[in-house]
Amino acid sequence: GGVCTAKLSEAEVMVEGGITDILIPNQVVHKDKLARMCALANHADVKVCVDNLQNVKDLSTTAEAYGVEIGVLVEVDTQMKRAGVRSNEEGIAIAKLTNNLPGVNFKGVMSHQSLSEFIDHENRRKIGQETIQVCLDLKTAIEAEGIEVEMVSSGETFTIDIAPEMSGVTEVEGGTYALGGTMYFYMKDFQVANKVLGTIISTPRPGVAIGDIGLMALSDRGAALVENMPEIEVLEILDDHIVLTDVKTELQVGDTFTVIPSYQDMLIDRWDHYVAIRDGVVEEIWDIPARGCSQ
User: Fold this and answer.
1) Distance CA 153, CA 43 (A)
2) Are the CB atoms for 211 and 198 separated by under 8 Å?
3) What mean pLDDT comes out for the span 128-142?
4) Among candidate residues 138, 21, 9, 7, the one with its CA nearest the CA of residue 71
5) What is the three-class DSSP state of 19?
6) Distance between CA atoms of 36 and 48, rounded to whole angstroms?
7) Percentage of the chain with pLDDT > 90?
8) Which is higher by pLDDT, 161 or 220?
């Protein structure tokens, strides 16, 4: 199967590792990066998202110069208020232009959604269906112009059970499920795989303990939990420290603890390796070849 990579540098690592079906659900616009992406297309089936006509023209020029073909998907802004077309007319114009230029091959449409607050599963389904439908409506509009839409890449962890049921969606981009976090506790089919081990480095006053992991290790100041220590609460997460309230446990300097992060996606390529543990025993250490790939 293929993978999504938010950055071109991550795509390069994936191809080097033998994965050759790549979708970059993001825009690549700088001429140097366009050249790198087209060079990568000599070794893989590379697809990228666009939301403006000039990007398509520049991509076509570069791809033709490199003698390759890049797959193009139109990104649709369904609710995130970041990249993506805001109307069917914009999407149709991009699809038509792509069909008429060398070096680019129109493949379809893409969108990404988020759930700002979990209320209940009925509300979750409603938001998921309504937002993904915006992407599917563009698919229909493009097809009405006589242009084939091969791919509809949409859906994420909170719609992992919704997107596949929607007629027309061809792939789901969910990724957070692989790590988990407290913000996804409502998705009962998944357990938290990603946890961060810390050490108490200070007990400055009664009832308070300071740990050596902070925002640089947890990526989010959200509702982190200390595993198997329900009496301990996370009071504050600073850049390099975590402040714990400790009334009953009386943690001591040197004690270890495990934090279940709120959300860890942003740091997945900031670690050197993952330590794979089963039943308290280290089984493997996994390198992270894409470490630092933010370009």
Assistant:
1) 22
2) yes
3) 97
4) 21
5) coil
6) 13
7) 80
8) 161
| Long-range CB contact pairs, 290-295, < 8 A, 24+ | 290/9, 290/10, 290/13, 290/14, 293/7, 293/9, 293/10, 293/12, 293/13, 293/269, 294/7, 294/9, 294/269, 295/7, 295/8, 295/9, 295/33
- Exposed, middle or buried: residue 2 (CB in 10 Å: 0-12, 13-18, 19+)? middle
Q: What is residue 79's predicted lDDT score, i.e. its pLDDT?
A: 94
CB neighbourhood size of 189 (10 A): 7
Mean pLDDT of 49-67: 98
HEC profile of 131-145: HHHHHHHHHHHHHCC
Cα three-residue angle 283-287-291, rounded to 5 degrees: 150
Res. 271 pLDDT band, cuts 50 70 90: confident
User: Can you give the length of the chain in residues?
Assistant: 295
Measured CA angle at 130 (ends 126, 136), to 5 deg: 140
